[in-house]
Design a protein that fits this description.
The structure holds two protein chains of two kinds. Chain A is of the alpha+beta class. Chain A has one domain: archaeoglobus fulgidus dsm 4304 fold, CATH 3.30.2170. In chain A, about 25% of the residues lie in helices and about 30% in strands. In chain A, strands 1, 2, 3, 4, 5, 6, 7, 8, 9, 10 and 11 form an eleven-stranded mixed beta sheet that branches. Chain A is elongated and about 65 Å long. Chain B is α/β, with parallel strands linked by helices. Chain B folds into three domains: about 120 residues, Elongation Factor Tu (Ef-tu), domain 3 (Beta Barrel), CATH 2.40.30; about 300 residues, P-loop containing nucleotide triphosphate hydrolases (Rossmann fold, 3-Layer(aba) Sandwich), CATH 3.40.50; about 80 residues, no CATH class. In chain B, about 30% of the residues lie in helices and about 20% in strands. Chain B is elongated and about 95 Å long. The chains are: A alpha+beta, B alpha/beta. Chains A and B meet through strand 4, strand 5 and helix 4 of A and helix 1 of B.
Chain lengths: ~300, ~575
């Protein structure tokens, strides 16, 4: 089997979106208030003071091509890391309590010999977008592993991204920064647009490929027009409705102060300050990409 | 015995001359700590690199903006506090100049490791200098103090807070009492000029203000705390006093007056020392000075009580002498004899003007009404303090010049360097300025350049080394710096200090000195103990018995008795 390393900067490949899943979404907006009485909800006084924020980062280190007499297959060397930040707002301390780094070679075909850094991971897909999706799934698994280790003591655990597959953690919410699609009906979307910083929508139940509670929250710092500064938050379906509403109140009180400033973060304010700090730390932990690319090249050259 | 401090940084260049250390989370490194690390070199073996911490810093890792510090302190942003220390290498052993490897463990050097790093292991005779910041003793190699391999000490620092004279006397005390120079200490002499206040007149009085902690620090350095044992204080005679009573306020015993008789003045040719710039080639009248001095040596006949007779005229005061010289120079008949031929009247008048001006300042030091004292500096006491603080500037120069010349000539005649003669002189920038020449500067230059072989060691102090004759400063083996002002600290004379030390001298506290010695590439920061002798009357304990005896007898009659003597009844 022949293996070649693409001379291109591997980050050029990292722009493919995950393949879209089913479009069908069932929304139940009667959980907290009847849909007709929907209005922005204010945060109820002080929220939790001990937070846990979990996030992961992922980087494509090299694109490789595997080929033999029968054909050619794409492969991808990927590094990903996940970590958790414990914020003690009363103690004035935040620390990265747990980090983990993994690497892997995603390819439909086992190249036969492993690289030191990149163990082989079987993927059925042969499209680079699907390879990226596979690596994204691996990162989510690692995030779940990290979160499971540390989430037990926090009053509120914020997991970056959707809660899918991590619904068993106590007091955990999924935190989605961007909105590729809108789940609410048009009049209720108006409520989202009317949110002032620090306000949230009532909790609704969302069922796509998996069930969960969800609500929208506007963070301060980006004005209060349209969808600017609005994040969507998810809670596990297994919770009672009251527990989900309590979690929604907790996020409305706790998350707005964590919003980042626009001049420091291009994804402000949705990219929370602890997440930004954690991502910087994790990216450093991924190691130097040029060094890793070189190690891949030399490893293949010596085969 | 070592304990871990951290690891060599790889994000800053590590070189054989300096490297950075990442300080571990449970450790600390402060300025002046001695650190050491090892690396394996193929074909050579283990190379140990040791040095002194010259800079420390700490920063938030993970913060990008200045305002992040508030997020971090508020518990929003995770960041790590990381400390790092810069080590300036003092010793590489064996001498294979390779950089330490990043990641290598760095340890605090203690005991023998520290001695090796600071070259104390090679110092056969150690003169204690005080303590470093971590409380460990710091030494000076006596070879660089007694002339074996180098001599002379230059102490710089601003007035008042730099404690220059305290350090000079401490260095003398340490040298004489630590046993560093062995039995030689007994014969070693020191001559100290006291230029400010009566600070140094109480060297033989115990200091009542020191506590047990200070006494303990003396003992840790291997010497007993106490005052100088054998001290003679010389002071100028009181102005207008006919009996030559020394002009000192703070002590009444153990003080002698110093003066020169007119006979000595004429015989030894001391006239040039009256003029600060007598050897300056740009001045015309200096020819007259030397001519008159030669004339006095030839004409003056000694009489009783140090008076002289010139041409049958009896002179008993300095003013008499001045009047006589002026008269001879003003008279057309005698002028060529006294001033030399082809000397312009203007030049002669310039000389007369200066000579008359000197009468007021020097009159009380040149006497024709007191018995000759022989040598001004007696060889009895170990430490001789010459008090100048009551004298006007011209008289101070005269005394320093004449005394130094006397000592230098005595050592020159003796022909051996031993026993050593130390000379402590403050305000060196006044006596040996960078610009111009004078008889005193010539003597000081002579001491600086030849004194090492003749056993005359200069401990010079000055506010600004940049204004002292360069050859004197460059001949000093040991350079000491106390607190400096910021403009002075940037001058090239202080190039031996590291960059960080140049900033630190601006805030050096009293009692903290930066000592550069030839063996060590980095000056060491030293805290020297508070003087165990009185530095002002309020601190002085009772006068030592020897100085009290000076009132009646120089010898204690009881000391003559043998211990075994029977009771005479």
């Amino acid at each position: 089997m022949q293996i070649t390393v693409d001379a291109w900067d591997p980050s050029f490949a990292d722009n493919a979106e995950s393949p879209s899943r089913s479009d069908s979404a069932t929304v139940d907006t009667e959980i907290e208030t009847p849909a007709k009485q929907w209005a922005p909800v204010d945060a109820p006084g002080p929220g939790p003071r001990r937070l846990l924020v979990v996030d992961g980062v992922r980087r494509i280190d090299a694109r490789v091509e595997l080929s033999d007499e029968t054909g050619r297959w794409p492969g991808m060397c990927v590094s990903w890391a996940a970590g958790a930040v414990a914020c003690d707002l009363d103690g004035g301390a935040s620390a990265v309590t747990e980090t983990a780094v993994e690497r892997g070679l995603f390819a439909p075909l086992d190249p036969g010999a492993e690289l030191d850094h990149y163990p082989y991971r079987k993927t059925d897909a042969a499209e680079s977008a699907e390879l990226i999706a596979a690596s994204q799934a691996a990162m989510a698994a690692l995030e779940a592993k990290v979160a499971a280790k540390v989430a037990t003591h926090a009053e509120l655990s914020v997991l970056d991204g959707t809660l899918r597959g991590r619904t068993r953690l106590p007091n955990a919410v999924g935190y989605i920064k961007s909105h590729h699609r809108s789940y609410l009906q048009a009049p209720l979307n108006g409520v989202v647009e009317r949110l002032r910083p620090g306000q949230r929508t009532p909790v609704f139940h969302l069922m796509t490929t998996w069930p969960r509670y969800s609500w929208y929250l506007r963070l301060p710092g980006a004005g209060s027009r349209g969808w600017a500064g609005v994040a969507r938050i998810e809670a596990a379906d297994a919770l009672s409705e009251e527990a989900a509403i309590a979690l929604a109140d907790a996020t409305a009180a706790a998350l707005p102060p964590l919003g980042s400033a626009a001049h420091k973060d291009p994804r402000a304010p949705q990219n929370l300050t602890p997440i930004a700090g954690l991502e910087r730390r994790l990216k450093r932990k991924l190691g130097d990409s040029r060094l890793l690319l070189r190690s891949v090249r030399t490893a293949y050259a010596n085969r | 015995m070592t304990d871990s401090v951290g690891r060599v940084l790889g994000t800053e260049d590590a070189t054989p001359l300096s490297f950075w250390v990442g300080v571990g989370p449970d450790a600390y490194a402060q300025l002046d700590d001695v650190l050491t690390t090892e690396r394996e070199v193929p074909g050579v073996g283990t190379v140990r690199v040791s040095g002194v911490v010259t800079a420390v810093r700490s920063r938030h890792e993970g913060a990008q903006f200045d305002s992040d510090v508030f997020d971090i302190a508020g518990g929003l942003l995770p960041a790590q506090v990381q400390e790092a220390a810069e080590v300036t290498v003092t010793r590489v052993e064996p001498e294979v100049f390779v950089p330490p490897t990043p990641g290598a463990a760095v340890e605090r050097a203690t005991g023998a490791e520290r001695d090796r790093a600071l070259y104390f292991d090679g110092m056969e005779r150690q003169v204690p200098l005080g303590f470093s910041r971590d409380g460990q003793p710091v030494f000076l190699n006596a070879d660089f103090l007694d002339g074996t391999r180098g001599a002379h000490v230059s102490i710089s620092g601003i007035s008042g807070v730099a404690t220059k004279t305290s350090f000079a006397t401490w260095l003398l005390y340490s040298l004489l009492h630590s046993g560093a120079i062995g039995a030689e200490a007994a014969n070693t002499k020191a001559l100290i000029f006291n230029v400010k206040g009566e600070d140094l007149l109480l060297l033989d009085h115990d200091n009542t203000k020191i506590d047990d902690e200070i006494r303990e620090s003396y003992r840790r350095l291997g010497m007993a705390p106490g005052a100088f044992k054998s001290v003679e204080v010389l002071a100028p005679p009181r102005e207008g006093d006919n009996n030559g009573v020394p002009d000192v306020a703070c002590r009444s015993t153990g003080v002698d007056a110093f003066y020169w008789t007119l006979a000595e003045f004429c015989r030894d040719g001391l006239l040039p020392f009256v003029f600060a710039d007598a050897d300056d080639d740009r001045q015309q009248y200096t020819m007259v000075v030397h001519q008159v001095a030669a004339r006095l040596r030839k004409e003056a006949r000694p009489k009783d009580n140090g008076a002289v007779a010139v041409d049958g005229q009896l002179l008993t005061t300095y003013r008499d002498l001045v009047d006589l010289i002026c008269e001879r120079l003003s008279d057309d008949v005698t002028r060529t004899e006294w001033a030399g031929s082809a000397i312009g009247l203007g030049t002669v008048n310039a000389f007369i003007r200066r000579l008359i001006a000197s009468g007021r300042d020097i009159g009380r030091l040149i006497r024709g009404d007191l018995p000759p004292k022989g040598k001004v500096v007696s060889s009895q006491a170990q430490v001789t303090v010459v008090d100048l603080h009551n004298l006007p500037d011209r008289a101070q120069r005269f005394v320093v010049g004449v005394v130094l010349r006397g000592e230098f000539e005595r050592k020159e005649k003796a022909g051996t360097a031993r026993p050593l003669q130390f000379v402590v002189l403050d305000e060196l920038n006044k006596y040996a300025p960078r610009e111009g020449t004078s008889p005193i500067k010539d003597i000081l230059l002579d001491i600086a350049e030849r004194g090492r072989s003749m056993g005359v060691i200069l401990i010079g102090a000055q506010q600004t080394a940049s204004e002292v004759e360069r050859r004197i400063a460059s001949n000093s083996a040991v350079r000491v710096v106390g607190r400096l002002d910021s403009a002075e600290a940037t001058r090239p004379e202080y190039g031996f200090l590291t960059q960080a030390q140049r900033q630190r001298v601006l805030m050096a506290k009293p009692g903290t000195m930066f000592v550069g010695q030839p063996e060590l590439p980095v000056p060491l920061v030293v805290n020297f103990p508070f003087p165990a002798w009185a530095t002002r009357p309020a601190e002085a304990g009772s006068a030592p018995s020897t100085s009290a005896r000076s009132v009646t007898a120089k010898v204690d009659p009881f000391e003559l008795a043998d211990d075994d003597d029977d009771i005479p009844f």
